[in-house]
Amino acid sequence: MGIENIIGEALPEVLTTRLDSLINWARKSSLWPATFGLACCAIEMMNATSSRNDLARFGAEVFRASPRQADVMIVSGRVSRKMAPVLRRIYDQMPEPKWVISMGACATSGGVFDNYAIVQGVDKIVPVDVYIPGCPPRPEMLIHAVMMLQDKVMKDSVRDHKDIPEAEARHALTPGTLPVTDGSTLGPATAESRPYTIASRHERRRSS
Amino acid sequence: MSAGLQNEQPATPSQLVTALQSEHPDWVTEFTEALGEVTAVVPRAYIVEVCSLLKTPAAGEFNFLADLCGVDRGVEEEPRFEVNYHLFSTIRYHRLRLKVLLSENDVHVPTVTGVWRTANWHERETYDLVGIIFDGHPDLRRILLPDDWQGHALRKDFPLRGYEPYSLK
Amino acid sequence: MSTSVNIPPQLEVVDRPLDTQMTISMGPQHPSTHGVLRIELVLDGEMVVKATPDIGYLHTGMEKLFEYKKYQQGIVITDRMDYLNPLGNNLAYVMAAEKLLELEIPERAQTIRVLFCELQRIASHLVWLGTHALDLGAMTVFFYCFREREKILNLIEAASGGRLTPSYFRIGGLMMDLPPGFERRVKQFLDGFPKALDDFKKLLTGNRIFQKRTQDIGRISAEDAIDWGLSGPSLRGSGVALDIRRANPYSGYENYDFEIATEPGGDVWARYLVRMREMEESQKIVTQALSRLRSGPVKADAPKVVLPDREAMKTHMDALIHHFLIVAEGFDVPQGEVYHAIEASKGELGVYIKSDGGPKPFRVHFRGPSFVNLSALPDLCRGAMIADVVAIIGSLDIVLGEIDR
After folding, report:
1. Residue B3: pLDDT above 90?
2. Closest-CA residue in chain C for A87?
3. Inter-chain residue contact B158 with A116, CB threshold 8 Å
4. How much is the ipTM here?
5. Domain-embedded: residue A161
């Protein structure tokens, strides 16, 4: 009785599951982080990938330097106001599906530095999936966070992370956030004097 | 320098400053020695000459500018700002501090990048954080704060948390 | 460099890629810039015409934060500055404050400070070696270095509770004494470390690819190095035998027997050799410090400045009152200004503290060695290729937390 019994007897090599589970299992087992180490937490992240606490056991094998090939962005370290637009741009350059882990007290809420220079929490810039407290958190805590993210990924559905249509992607980010300093003066920087690259079809603005 | 070194061993910084003061009286206005360190207050107009002279072997051989930092003494103080030059000699291993006092309405100092090239970035940082303008600097622009930042962060009237929280807009 | 080819006018293109120079931005998110550093490279093909570093992407406003925190609270912030050498930052700040207060530190505290500073120097050089080799393609060395570094981090954690941000030193001595069995563990580490250094030498020093990528790259002469303010191994790699531990000794360094590692080359290879030898010399200093450890107090005899022991605080009234006052109100530091420099793993780390007589400093300025070392990058990179820029940045051993503060 039941379709699984019939298949089990007639075709023993066939495995039935939900498409979601299969895709989520593949996604969670190969979460490739983008290198976004900013400060001291980056050193603990490097410790988490070294041989003592091996993050590669959990599928986070390669730290991709290019955000276009990465799944998860581990924001490790304090985000200053000058760096915040860069962070947003790197996040936008990651293709779907993407997740963000905010590692350490400074990325979560500004940490020890409640002053003019540090953004008080990276969730003011990008949507965060897992927060890790600590200053800096131990490598074991980062591994626990990756495991929590894997649980979260398993509960996701394929319909949640759809890439947006190309027409919408063309009206993407504000150009020119990085300054070019060749022959600059004492005056303030203006947007018109900056050259910019063409927006890619994968970038989009997400209102946070 | 004619006056100064009669004995065999090299002169200590306080002896050097005393000799400098006796030779050029208006180059050093005040000279203190406390906690094992020698501080000489130099008027703004002569700072480049004093630094060039101190770099020569006869007057101390201070060939290394260890640090250049600006201090805001307080909103109601007069003079309001000071610039400290920390000199070090890699040959004789002694240290000296020069200080230039500036008032609020005239925050210009001649640059010492001609004497030591390392002053370049130190002066940019002092301009960025305290707001002191160095005349003759090859490339005076902000170095640590974003280029379009308003205000100078280390001044005493700049609030600790800034003027507004960060937002993407 | 224009080619002499006759292009008919109807096919003339506006953009002649072989004629112009290209400006690209290396960073701030880049695997090889050792942090959030942005370098504007003006390139002629692959050759660098001009390299301008653009910093400030990690500016934390620490110097302003110090003015709002009492002296003891400020020690925690110094950890996060040069995060590979936090005990060195602690030491510089604490010694500058002790100079203002004119405190005398007991000998056991000084010996333990030297021991930890040298262990921290080895740990910092291990990260330098791992990341530098990783940038140049040697991935195995990265894992070996971090394996050795875990042992040192275990030692620091055993004494202070924190791996990367220990805050172990206090104004007047140490936070608390060493745990029992500590000397044995340090000896265990020291027994295994020479073999690890041998491994690194076998992997890198004799490696022809590594040699080709580092010899004759990024040369700087001794006079230029002093003019640009370089210090530490970057200066000693150009032949200048300057070490603050010998020039202005502090914390008992005059009693230790070690050599200053110097190489005359001035290129990336010379700086590599200097740092490898420095690791050996630090090992010698740690062995000597271990043999010099005698029992004694680890905090200075200044009840108004140094926190009392927990047992004394729980049983004696005056100790309780002092503890409360130090923690709640802080201690007043006499008016004055002081500049104290130590030899951190990157170079001369100088602290300038100006005090106005209150419990919080009036102005604290850190002279970060990486800040000054990086300012020489335009000079070093002229005429190099892009891949050499990566090698030069690695050889300067920069830490962005110290540059941007």
Report:
1. no
2. C29
3. yes
4. 0.89
5. no
Domain residues of chain B, as ranges? 13-135
Q: Is residue A181 part of a domain?
A: no
Q: Mapping DSSP to helix (H, G, I), strand (E, B) and coil, where does residue A131 land?
A: strand
Torsion angles phi and psi, residue C145, rounded to 5? -65, -45
pLDDT digits (tens, 9 = 90+) for B56-73: 887 778 889 999 989 998
Residue A23 inside a domain? The answer is no
How far apart (Å, rounded) are the C-alpha atoms in residues B91 and A193?
48
Selection from C84, C122, C147 nearest residue C279 by Cα = C122
pLDDT one-digit tens code per residue, C149-162? 999 999 999 999 88
Q: How far apart are the first and last CA of chain B?
A: 61
Cβ-Cβ contacts under 8 Å for C47 (sequence gap 6 or more):
C383, C384, C385
Q: Is A47 at the interface with chain C, CB within 8 A?
A: yes
What crossing angle do the helices spanning C86-101 and C107-135 adopt, rounded to 10°? 150
Q: Read off the tokens for A111.
A: 């940490």
Which candidate from C23, C77, C164 shows the least CB-CB separation from A112?
A: C77
List all residues 6 or more positions away from A117 whose beta carbon is below 8 Å from its beta carbon. A80, A81, B145, B153, B162, C59, C60, C61
Of C389, C293, C402, C384, which is closest to residue C347 (Cα–Cα)? C402
Question: Closest residue of A to B146, CA-based?
Answer: A82
Length of chain C: 405
Contacts of C187 (CB under 8 A, 6+ apart): C290
* Residue A105 belongs to some domain of the structure: yes
Residues contacting residue B118 through CB under 8 Å, at least 6 positions apart: B65, C227, C228, C229, C372, C375
Q: Which residues of A touch B138 (CB under 8 A)?
A: none
pTM (2 d.p.): 0.86
Structural domain spans, chain C: 62-404
CATH of span C62-404: 1.10.645.10
> Looking only at Cα atoms, what is the longest distance across chain B?
69
Interface contact A145, partner C, CB < 8 A? no
Contact A39 C76 (CB under 8 A): no
Indicate if the alpha-carbon torsion angle C393, B69, B42, C98 is positive or negative.
Answer: negative
Q: How confident is the model at residue A191 (pLDDT cuts 50, 70, 90)?
A: very low
For residue A143, what is the domain's CATH number? 3.40.50.12280
Secondary structure element (H or E) that encloses residue A101, with its range: strand A99-103
Residue C30, Cα to own-chain centre: how many angstroms?
21
DSSP letters spanning chain B: --SS--SSSPPPHHHHHHHHHHHSTTT-SEEEEETTEEEEE--GGGHHHHHHHHHSGGGT---EEEEEEEEE--TT-SS-EEEEEEEE-TTT--EEEEEEEE-TT--EEE--TTT-TTHHHHHHHHHHHT--EEET-TT---SSS-TT--S-TTSTTS-TT-SS-----
Partners of residue B37 on adjacent β-strands: B34
What is the domain extent for residue A144?
32-155
As a whole number of angstroms, the distance between CA A127 and CA A40 comes to: 22
Residue from the list A82, A120, A186 with its beta carbon closest to the beta carbon of B140: A186
The number of distinct structural domains making up chain A is: 1
Give me the residue from C59, C229, C248 closest to B64, CB to CB.
C229
A28 contacts A59 by C-beta, under 8 angstroms: yes
Query: Mind telling me how many Å the CA of C224 is from chain B's nearest CA?
Result: 9
B145 to chain A, closest Cα gap in Å: 7
Q: Could you say which residues of chain C have pLDDT below 70?
A: 1-19, 33
Q: Does B41 touch chain C (CB under 8 A)?
A: no
Is domain B13-135 given the CATH code 1.10.3720.10 in the classification? no
